[in-house]
Amino acid sequence: TMDHSGMEQGSIDHSTMDHSKIGHDMGGHDSSTPMWQWFHTEINDVIAFSWWRVRDVKTLLLSCAVVFVAGAALEWLRMMRARNRERLKADRSYSGAALIEGTRRYGSLHGEDTVTYRTFEHQDPTRPRRSFFYGLSASFHIKDTILFAIQTTLSYTIMLVFMTFSVYLCTSLVAGTAFGYFVFGRKRI
């Protein structure tokens, strides 16, 4: 290790130094756009991306419309995933598959105190059991995974919109999700 004890800078007068040439760029933080930590009604926000800025009433109204549609789209995605799962259940239950009763045993490491549970599962007796990897590559699972990824991305983006704490944007978001649930949510009931 290097000994820095002889390099004291206490005698340097820092008040006479010109610091104006030193770059203090905060990497995309515009000092004219505050990071709100409370709900506000100001028209001055950056939403999720540096290029998505609200500077006037026109951009605020456009942003509110986009956020409203995004909220409704999130509910539509939830409905689509739920509907796809219901279709899969219906296909499995009406495909001639029988409800098979079985037992599974769970016990201690020493084989004592074994507990038996009754289990029921759909199984078509004419088809062999499919592997775990077959289920991963099933077209339904792939489609559902893609929809889940889109839903998650949209959910987190919407969360960032809400974190602007703009009363206008938050109200638009809640109205959009409520509208989406009103239109699409009834199909899940």
Uncertain spans: 23-30, 94-100, 105-111
Estimate the global geometry from the Cα principal axes.
flat
User: What structural category characterises the helix and strand content?
Assistant: alpha+beta
Task: Determine the fraction of residues in helical runs and give it as a percent range.
Answer: 40-55%
Helix tally equals: 4
- The Rg value, from CA coordinates, equals 29 Å
Numbering strands along the chain, what is their spatial order in the largest sheet? Answer: 1-2
Give the strand tally.
Answer: 4
Main β-sheet: number of strands, strand sense, barrel status? 2 strands, antiparallel
Question: How far do the termini sit from each other?
Answer: 69 Å
**What's the helix-strand series?**
EEHEEHHH
What's the pLDDT, averaged over the residues? Answer: 75
Measured by DSSP, the beta-strand proportion falls in 5-15%
Pfam family, one: Ctr
Subcellular location: Membrane
Membrane topology: Multi-pass membrane protein
Transmembrane segments: 59-77, 132-150, 156-184
Please, could you describe this protein's structure?
The chain has 189 residues and is of the alpha+beta class. Helix 1 runs parallel beside helix 4 (167-184). The chain starts with 44 loop residues before the first strand and ends in a 5-residue tail after the last helix. It has a domain at 38-86 and 137-189. It has helices at 57-93, 132-137, 139-162, 167-184, and strands spanning 45-46, 53-54, 98-106, 115-123. The strands form two sheets. Strands 1-2 form a two-stranded antiparallel ribbon. The model is unreliable at 23-30, 94-100 and 105-111 (pLDDT under 50). The radius of gyration is 29 Å and the shape is flat.
